[in-house]
């Protein structure tokens, strides 16, 4: 081949190669373009879950915006081609964020009896109130609540529950002041739940104490109670009873709290408690739903379910307690928590002689008054092996006082001050009833009663044999064997053989044969 032909041949080869390159570039542009017909069809195929909409006219502005977004997405995919898509990442992140189930812990503070400082000058009238009371440290309850808030911020329970008698005597201003304290606790990340007690609604004993005067003041009615406290449980309720201030609160997917309003305040306030018939109907619906979902329910109310105290048999146990016991046991409810008594007590229901029922019986824990030494609260813990454990803890006002820099000596040594206050109030009340005996004997006898009462309130065990061997007991036995006070000492000794500050039980699955309340009631 001559040189001319060789040159022509090379030019042709180069021209073909150039054309091939141009074709490849055009093809690549077509493949990556978002505006081609094929691209639109591909996008529509990928978006089958989106309903058809009328296509907007394509303007220069939205073309540029769409191109910019698409270009950015392509760039990200080019930089991180090995990363999973967003949906896949979300699934993986969810899996990583899922933590093992943590059973809940709740705290119960009953009978707080909050009294607002704006309702007194702590003068003569207030002093008379304290002397006639049962040992509540009313003047320091605001500080006790602050110390309690400090402890709860550290403990972070799933919920803090105030189970009735939130105020001293239903003062509306007292409710409002307490709600402000509870709002602070919630701001610190702790959920608060409340129910009313017999002191809280339509209580004509609501009063202020200035100088020597006790003056009636506005009491809270049912609407006031709801308006003041609706954010503390009612707004978050799974179900609200339309006939009382009862509700259901979900602790988590496995555990509910049945918060019962046991107080009687219509048409007037009563000391005793009762669950309304329509509320019992509502309760049954909630318990049926819980059983269907496999949920454990713990019941919380103000009044006692069982006969808890030999010393205080009146106005403490629900008037229709047997009906409530049958309903709760038919759904194998493990625990009912109450207050009202101002004593720390635990008990499991025992059938009456001749009564026939299931082999399963409900337990009750009565929380003593938060306002009375040892100013403690209950802690209920669910465990991973279907157990429930109840313990008590003291509100550490002493430590709170030191941290806040108070100069009040009573707050700096509060545990001792509160216990001594309780004993002194009871001592004065008892000694004033003992007549015609030497002063030293009266003092010794009254001191024994005060000491026993202090242990009784706190749920501490008392060795009856040891007490009966003391000289103080012999003085009672010799001088006032038939007196009401000596009978009460005997009742306290019979009621305090064991420690009532701990309780343990199990959560059980509801058995079909035990959950039919109607069949239970027809059993002879």
Automatic annotation (TrEMBL):
**Keyword list, A-Z:** Hydrolase, Iron, Membrane, Metal-binding, Transmembrane, Transmembrane helix
Q: Where is the composition biased (Basic and acidic residues)?
A: 73-100, 498-509
* Pfam families reported for this sequence: CNP_C_terminal (PF17839), Metallophos (PF00149)
Calcineurin-like phosphoesterase domain residues: 106-342
Disordered: annotated segments: 34-100, 498-524
PANTHER family, per the entry: CYCLIC NUCLEOTIDE PHOSPHODIESTERASE CBUA0032-RELATED, PHOSPHOHYDROLASE
What family is it from?
Belongs to the cyclic nucleotide phosphodiesterase class-III family.
User: Mind telling me what this protein is named?
Assistant: Metallophosphoesterase
């Amino acid at each position: 081949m001559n040189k001319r032909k060789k040159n022509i041949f090379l030019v042709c080869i180069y021209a073909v190669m150039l054309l091939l390159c141009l074709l490849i570039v055009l093809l690549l542009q077509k493949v990556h373009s978002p505006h081609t017909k094929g691209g639109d069809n591909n996008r529509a195929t990928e978006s089958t879950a989106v309903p058809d909409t009328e296509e907007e006219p394509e303007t220069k502005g939205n073309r540029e915006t769409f191109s910019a977004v698409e270009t950015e997405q392509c760039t990200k995919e080019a930089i991180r081609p090995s990363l999973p898509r967003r949906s896949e990442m979300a699934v993986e992140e969810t899996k990583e964020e899922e933590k093992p189930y943590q059973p809940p812990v709740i705290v119960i503070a009953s009978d707080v009896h909050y009294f607002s400082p704006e309702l007194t000058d702590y003068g003569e009238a207030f002093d008379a109130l304290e002397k006639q009371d049962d040992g509540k440290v009313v003047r320091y309850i605001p500080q006790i609540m602050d110390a309690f808030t400090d402890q709860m911020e550290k403990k972070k329970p799933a919920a803090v529950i105030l189970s009735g008698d939130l105020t001293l005597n239903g003062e509306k201003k007292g409710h409002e002041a307490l709600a402000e304290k509870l709002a602070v606790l919630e701001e610190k990340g702790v959920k608060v739940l409340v129910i009313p007690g017999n002191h809280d609604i339509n209580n004509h004993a609501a009063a202020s104490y200035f100088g020597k005067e006790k003056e009636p003041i506005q009491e809270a009615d049912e609407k006031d109670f709801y308006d003041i406290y609706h954010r503390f449980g009612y707004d978050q309720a799974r179900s609200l009873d339309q006939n009382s201030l009862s509700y259901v609160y979900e602790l988590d997917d496995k555990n509910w709290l049945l918060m019962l309003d046991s107080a009687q305040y219509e048409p007037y306030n009563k000391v005793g408690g009762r669950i309304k018939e329509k509320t019992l109907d509502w309760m049954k619906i909630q318990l049926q739903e819980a059983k269907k979902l496999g949920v454990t329910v713990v019941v919380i109310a103000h009044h006692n379910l069982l006969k808890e105290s030999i010393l205080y048999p009146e106005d403490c146990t629900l008037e229709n307690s047997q009906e409530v016991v049958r309903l709760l046991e038919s759904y194998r409810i493990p625990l009912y928590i109450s207050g009202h008594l101002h004593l720390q007590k635990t008990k499991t229901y025992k059938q009456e002689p001749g009564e026939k029922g299931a082999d399963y019986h409900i337990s009750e824990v009565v929380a003593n008054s938060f306002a009375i030494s040892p100013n403690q609260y209950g802690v209920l813990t669910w465990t991973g092996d279907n157990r429930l454990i109840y313990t008590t803890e003291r509100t550490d006002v002493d430590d709170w006082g030191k941290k806040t820099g108070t100069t009040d000596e009573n707050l700096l040594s509060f545990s001792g001050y509160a216990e001594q206050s309780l004993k002194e109030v009871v001592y004065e009340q008892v000694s004033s009833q003992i007549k015609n005996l030497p002063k030293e004997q009266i003092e010794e006898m009254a001191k024994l009663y005060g000491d026993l009462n202090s242990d009784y309130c706190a749920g501490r065990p008392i060795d009856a044999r040891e007490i009966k061997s003391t000289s103080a007991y012999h003085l009672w036995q010799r001088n006032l064997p038939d007196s009401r006070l000596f009978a009460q000492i005997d009742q306290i000794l019979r009621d305090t053989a064991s420690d009532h500050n701990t309780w343990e039980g199990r959560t059980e699955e509801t058995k079909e044969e035990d959950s039919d309340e109607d069949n239970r009631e027809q059993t002879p």
